[in-house]
C-alpha cells in the first residue's frame, strides 16, 4: 500500500457512468482520500504525484452487492467447523482477489462482521470496503440452517464462522435482528425462501411467517437500515416486497407481478447469475455436495429470463455475484452474462452508481465527481464500447485506488 499523499491524474478519459459517456482530456486531483478537483485545464498541485493516464479510462471503483467474503469453501458444514481465525485469514485472500478485479466496495450477505470490516478499514487486511449483515436470519430448516436431516444440535449454526442465525417466532427474530444491529450491521438479511446450498429445504418454499418478517422489518426501520432477502420464487419475492423488504437477492423465478411490486415499493433486485454457472461447472470440486449442486438447475436458466423481465420493466438493479470458495475468481463473469441482456452502460451503472444508491452511499461512491471518495480504477480501453474489458481485469485493469490509496498498479 502506498502512502496517502495527493495524486494528480493527467490526461484521463473520465467515464461519466450516470450519462454513460466519456469525458476526454481531464485532470483529476485526489487529496485526503477524496476527489478534490476535476478540470479540462491543468491543475496546479506541485505536491502531488503525477500519473499520466495517456488517454486511458478513469472510472469509479466497482461494487458487488452480494458477496460472502468468509465463504472460503462451498462446503458449509466444513466452513462452520473451521476456526474463525483461520476463516478470517483465508477471507483476506478472497478480498485481495476482489481488489485485483477492481472492486472497492462490497456488500456481504452473510458471514462478515464488524471485526473483519474494521480490519479492512484500519488496513490490517487489504480488501474492498465491507458493508455487512453479520449472520443472515433463518427459520429452523431454512436456507441458513446447514444441519443435515439427522443432526439434532444447534451448536454449529451459531459458530462464528457460520453465516446463519436460526430464530423462530416473533420474539426470537426481534432479538436476533437487534443483536445484529448491536454489532453494527449495515443491513439485515433474511432467508425468505429455500436455496441451493441448504440441505433440508426446497427452493420453492417460503420461509418465516408474515408476522416474523414484519417484526424484522420494524427493527431494521427503527435502526434506519434496510432488510434484504434471499428469495427465488415469485411467491416468496412478492410476499417479501409487500412486507417491506428493500432488496431481493437472486429473484430467479419472479413474474410480472414482481416487477410491478418492485416499482411500487421502489425496491431493488440483485441478480447473482455468475454463481449458478460456476456451481454447475465447479460446485462439487469446490466442496458442495452433489445433491445440492443438482438443485442449481432449478434456477439456472430462469435467472437470465428474470433479469430480462426486470430490466425491460424498469426495476432498480444492482450488480451481485454470490460466489463461494474457489469460484470467487469468476466474479467478473457477471459482466459477460448481464451484457447479453443489458446495455454495457447499464451493466456498468449496476456495478457503480446503482449499487451506491442501494448502499445509501450515492453521494460518496459510484461516480468520478468532486467531493466523492477517491475509489477509482484505470482501464485500458472503453468498457462502454467493449464490456468484455471489465470481464478480463488481468489484461485491462491498470490501477486500483481506494480512498486515495493506490492498492494495485500494473507494471
Q: What would you say this structure looks like, in words?
A:
The chain has 411 residues and is of the alpha/beta class. The chain is 32% helix and 23% strand. It has helices spanning 76-81, 84-100, 114-122, 170-182, 210-223, 234-242, 256-264, 273-282, 290-295, 302-312, 333-339, 344-350, 353-358, 388-391, 393-396, and strands at residues 7-16, 21-31, 34-39, 49-52, 57-60, 62-67, 103-108, 129-131, 136-138, 164-166, 188-191, 227-233, 247-253, 268-270, 316-317, 376-379, 397-402, 405-409. The strands form four sheets. Strands 1, 2, 3, 4, 5, 16, 17 and 18 form an eight-stranded mixed β-sheet that branches. The two termini are 15 Å apart.
Overall morphology = globular
Count all strands and give the number: 18
CATH class of the largest domain: Alpha Beta
Classify the helix fraction into a percent range.
25-40%
Main sheet specs? 8 strands, mixed
**CATH topology tier name of the largest domain:** TIM Barrel
The CATH architecture of the largest domain would be Alpha-Beta Barrel
Mean pLDDT: 93
Strand content: 15-25%
List the topology elements.
Elements: E1 7-16, E2 21-31, E3 34-39, E4 49-52, E5 57-60, E6 62-67, H1 76-81, H2 84-100, E7 103-108, H3 114-122, E8 129-131, E9 136-138, E10 164-166, H4 170-182, E11 188-191, H5 210-223, E12 227-233, H6 234-242, E13 247-253, H7 256-264, E14 268-270, H8 273-282, H9 290-295, H10 302-312, E15 316-317, H11 333-339, H12 344-350, H13 353-358, E16 376-379, H14 388-391, H15 393-396, E17 397-402, E18 405-409
Parallel strand pairs: 1-4, 1-5, 6-7, 7-8, 9-10, 11-12, 12-13, 13-14, 14-15
Antiparallel strand pairs: 1-2, 2-3, 5-16, 16-17, 17-18
Helix pairs in contact: 4-5, 6-7
Amino acid at each position: 500500500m502506498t502512502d496517502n499523499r495527493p495524486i494528480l491524474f493527467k490526461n484521463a478519459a473520465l467515464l461519466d457512468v450516470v450519462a454513460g459517456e466519456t469525458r476526454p482530456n481531464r485532470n483529476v486531483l485526489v487529496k485526503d482520500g477524496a476527489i478534490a478537483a476535476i478540470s479540462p485545464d491543468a491543475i496546479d498541485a506541485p505536491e502531488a504525484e503525477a500519473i499520466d493516464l495517456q488517454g486511458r479510462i478513469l472510472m469509479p471503483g466497482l461494487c458487488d452487492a452480494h458477496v460472502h467474503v468468509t465463504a472460503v469453501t462451498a462446503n458449509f458444514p466444513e466452513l462452520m467447523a473451521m476456526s474463525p481465525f483461520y476463516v478470517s485469514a483465508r477471507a483476506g485472500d478472497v478480498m485481495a482477489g476482489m481488489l485485483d478485479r477492481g472492486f472497492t466496495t462490497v456488500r456481504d450477505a452473510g458471514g462478515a462482521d464488524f471485526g473483519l470490516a474494521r480490519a479492512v478499514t484500519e488496513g490490517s487486511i487489504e480488501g474492498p470496503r465491507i458493508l455487512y449483515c453479520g449472520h443472515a436470519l433463518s427459520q429452523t430448516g431454512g436456507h441458513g440452517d446447514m444441519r443435515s436431516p439427522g443432526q439434532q444440535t444447534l451448536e454449529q449454526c451459531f459458530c462464528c464462522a457460520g453465516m446463519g442465525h436460526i430464530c423462530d417466532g416473533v420474539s426470537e427474530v426481534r432479538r436476533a435482528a437487534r443483536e445484529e444491529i448491536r454489532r453494527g450491521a449495515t443491513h439485515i438479511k433474511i432467508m425468505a425462501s429455500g436455496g441451493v446450498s441448504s440441505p433440508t429445504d426446497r427452493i420453492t418454499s417460503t420461509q418465516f411467517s408474515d408476522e416474523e418478517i414484519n417484526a424484522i422489518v420494524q427493527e431494521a426501520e427503527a435502526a434506519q437500515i434496510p432488510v434484504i432477502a434471499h428469495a427465488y420464487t415469485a411467491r416468496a419475492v412478492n410476499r417479501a416486497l409487500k412486507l417491506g423488504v428493500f432488496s431481493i437477492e437472486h429473484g430467479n423465478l419472479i413474474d410480472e407481478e414482481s416487477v410491478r411490486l418492485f416499482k411500487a415499493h421502489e425496491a431493488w433486485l440483485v441478480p447473482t447469475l455468475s454463481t449458478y454457472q460456476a456451481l454447475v461447472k465447479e460446485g462439487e470440486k469446490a466442496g458442495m455436495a452433489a445433491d445440492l449442486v443438482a438443485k442449481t438447475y432449478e434456477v439456472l436458466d430462469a435467472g437470465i429470463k428474470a433479469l430480462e423481465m426486470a430490466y425491460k420493466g424498469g426495476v432498480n438493479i444492482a450488480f451481485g455475484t454470490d460466489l463461494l470458495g474457489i469460484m470467487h475468481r469468476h466474479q467478473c463473469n457477471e459482466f459477460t452474462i448481464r451484457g447479453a441482456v443489458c446495455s454495457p452502460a447499464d451493466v456498468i451503472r449496476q456495478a457503480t452508481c446503482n449499487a451506491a444508491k442501494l448502499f445509501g452511499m450515492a453521494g460518496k461512491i459510484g461516480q468520478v465527481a468532486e467531493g466523492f471518495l477517491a475509489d477509482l480504477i484505470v482501464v485500458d480501453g472503453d468498457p462502454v464500447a467493449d464490456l468484455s474489458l471489465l470481464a478480463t481485469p488481468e489484461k485491462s485493469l491498470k490501477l486500483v485506488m481506494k480512498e486515495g490509496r493506490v492498492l494495485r498498479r500494473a507494471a
